[in-house]
């Protein structure tokens, strides 16, 4: 394993196979969740990836801006959206948003905030989110629960074999408390039937519900609801769900 892991989720070569890896995700459930809680039609998708959520929302008439740090992800999103409603795609670091304001809703899905691996930077993200929202605007996000990362992912190996893609994924505890390193190796078959290998290294951090509640409050958010796994099952403890959803409003 590489000794130093970047704290930025850049998704280089992985961008090309990301949609294949996520092909079984019920995106429409995330879209319905967003529509149920959105405070209006102007939405910022923060950490938009290849644009699956952004494009679906745009097709339903929402005014969408998608922000991501990965140029490769944004290029794929732009290509997929050509036949869809107009979407603004921006390469930006969510810790330092620029030129964005007056959004009705900000969404940040698929554990984007787990890739923010220090409290200082988490606070920066929350402050940036607060600043781009209208007063009373909605902030929707999900995270892997700390319990899920610790009990179900850390120390585990995952693998999958597809027709043109095989991957092996190791998840190990990081050097700092509550951090986890994802070490992924991919083998991708090209049109000539030849396989090429590439590796991806990512770091995540788990945050307890209490820490997130405190940081949201300090950043100027009111928490309306905390739910588990899109089922809107109330969450009181970190063990109540694998993926925790927060529904917040800007004070």
Features:
eight-stranded mixed sheet, 27% helix, alpha/beta, four-stranded antiparallel sheet, 251 residues, disordered N terminus, Rossmann fold, 7 helices, 2 domains, N-terminal domain of TfIIb, globular
This entry's quaternary arrangement is single chain
Overall average pLDDT? 91
Low-confidence stretches: 1-10
Provide the structure class: alpha/beta
Number of beta strands: 12
What is the radius of gyration?
18 Å
Outline the structure in words.
It is a single chain. The chain folds into 2 domains: 15-144 and 207-250, Rossmann fold (3-Layer(aba) Sandwich), CATH 3.40.50; 148-205, N-terminal domain of TfIIb, CATH 2.20.25.110. Helices cover 27% and strands 35% of the residues. The radius of gyration is 18 Å and the shape is globular. The model is unreliable at 1-10 (pLDDT under 50). It is α/β, with parallel strands linked by helices. The chain is built from 7 helices and 12 strands. Helix 2 (27-37) packs across helix 3 (52-59). It has an 8-stranded mixed beta sheet with strand order 3-2-1-4-5-12-10-11, sandwiched between helices. The chain has a 4-stranded antiparallel beta sheet with strand order 6-7-8-9.
Q: Could you give a quick summary of the protein structure above?
A:
The protein has 7 helices and 12 strands.
């Amino acid at each position: 394993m590489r000794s130093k892991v970047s704290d930025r989720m850049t998704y280089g070569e992985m961008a090309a196979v990301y949609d294949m890896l996520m092909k079984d995700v019920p995106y429409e459930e995330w879209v319905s969740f967003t529509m149920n809680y959105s405070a209006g039609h102007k939405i910022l998708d923060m950490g938009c990836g290849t644009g699956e959520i952004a494009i679906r929302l745009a097709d339903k008439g929402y005014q969408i801006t998608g922000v991501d740090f990965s140029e490769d992800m944004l290029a794929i999103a732009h290509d997929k959206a050509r036949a869809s409603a107009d979407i603004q795609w921006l390469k930006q670091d969510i810790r330092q948003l620029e030129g964005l304001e007056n959004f009705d809703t900000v969404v940040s899905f698929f554990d984007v905030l787990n890739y923010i691996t220090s409290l200082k930077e988490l606070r920066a993200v929350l402050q940036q989110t607060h600043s781009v929202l209208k007063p009373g605007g909605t902030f929707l996000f999900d995270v892997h629960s700390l319990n899920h990362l610790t009990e179900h992912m850390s120390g585990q190996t995952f693998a999958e074999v597809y027709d043109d893609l095989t991957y092996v994924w190791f998840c190990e505890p990081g050097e700092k408390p509550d951090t986890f390193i994802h070490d992924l190796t991919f083998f991708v078959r090209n049109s000539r039937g030849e396989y090429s290998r590439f590796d991806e290294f990512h770091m995540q951090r788990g945050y307890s519900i209490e820490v997130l509640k405190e940081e949201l409050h300090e950043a100027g958010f009111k928490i309306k609801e905390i739910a588990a796994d899109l089922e809107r099952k109330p969450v009181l403890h970190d063990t109540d769900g694998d993926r925790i959803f927060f529904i917040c409003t800007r004070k």
